[in-house]
Amino acid sequence: MEYFVNLLLIGVGAALIHNFVFYYFVGLCPFLGVSKRIDMAFGMGLAVTFVISIASTLSWLLTYYVLRPGAPVSSWIWSTLGGGSGEVNLTILSYLVYIFAIASSVQFVEMYVRKFFPPLYKSFGIFLPLITTNCAILFACLEIMKNVVGVEPAAMWGLDQALVLSLGGGVGFTIAIVIMAGIREELELSEIPEPMRGPGIVFIVAGILALAFMGFAGVDSALARLFKAGMS
Amino acid sequence: MSIVVVTIALAAATLLILAVVMSTILGIANKSFHVPVDVRVEKVLAALPGANCGGCDYVGCSDYAEAIVLKGEDVTRCPVGGAAVSREVARIMGVEIRQAWPMRPVVHCAATLDKRKRRGDYEGERTCHAANIVSGVQGCVYGCLGLGDCVSVCEYDAIHVVDGLARVDYERCTGCGACVKACPRNIISRIPFKADRVLAVLCANKDFGKEVSDVCEVGCIGCKVCARVVSDLITIQDNLPVFDYGKYDPSQDLQAIVDKCPRESLVWIGKPTSRDIQETADETLSERVEADFKTTVDQTEWRG
Fold it and tell me: Which of B3, B18, B25 is facing A86, going by the closest CB pair?
């Protein structure tokens, strides 16, 4: 039970409370770039969710089995080579390896979408390859690394937690970009003061949205308390 | 062996193995998800003008290029590029060009503002779409509203409202059909121009004679005189003469029916003849007046 509560908190936390876009301000480039129409925004959100899931699965596997100090693969090699004390620490490679994983999964998704969803591929245009440089995805990978490297073995995240975080983050990104697209579709029809037209009003709207999402702050600890009280 | 050496070696090995594994996966995916792209599509797309106007009845130039290559669509559908583009595309595709007349829009209304009766005071939004919803703007519910929805969609500056009536500038018109789609009263249609000047019915009023003359000074009253003279070419439908442009022959002398028409509904349209140009050569043209209003996003002109 506690396990599921933990997962739920991670998921809800990533989706709403610590929304990638509105709390950490990552992934702003597609958030502003592809939020002109709701259907495109939704497609972008789905693509990011898909890529983020694949990329964080890959990066968790790599972090857990290869990169972290005392990882199975590296320590096995170290002991086979007759190493003494000390652990092989490959976390210096983290950024390289994560970008590698993200870029490959984006490539894969692009090929897949192109083959099986040609209209979606057409409407994405340049933004599908640009997911490669979407920092929300790298951010998710680094979040996962933070919870795998240098923490107590008991508190270390498994693949399940990593997946829930990335899925929650993807859903949160989708929510954010779809809300933004809805507002921007309305903005098209409204009379905006001249100095604020174009990107100006969009940034202001994004800021106000972020303020609104601050309302979720503290919900996670309250939720945790609630579940604890319910369980006992 | 020192831990530093092992770390460096392992780091290099990790990246190398990752690279090999990932590129293998992507290579396999590239093979199995391969989408065959016809090289001719790109060539045809390059030959098309890239206006994306939709005049060919496809979504855009790339859509049309795909249709040409994959579905064997006619190569002469591009109204913007005209004959030159058709030839180029036909060369790429290795097909013969079928004879195709340029399609040009005709505004089926001949009544300038002063010829229309029972006009109301319309103070609403200055678009035909808005005025079309309101009753009482003018007596004729078929005729041109003259608020210029067609003008605002025209990419080529080829249609203008003169004296409250939309008129096509056939020198500039490419026949893309944007105005046809924009007109809320559906009185603009495209007809094949078999000559520089063709005869067309410039009235869309389907009512009987009396109702028409109540609301318009020039509209067709459905007297059928024209159909009696050239019965093979003109049929009467809904009190309006309809040309069968398939049988239209530019060499046929049709001035007789124009003279016979008791109203002013049969009109020669198209490019000016050399005689017209000569006759008006000494006239000076006044500067065209452009509306000077700023809009936020849409084409709406606000009043009041």
Answer: B3
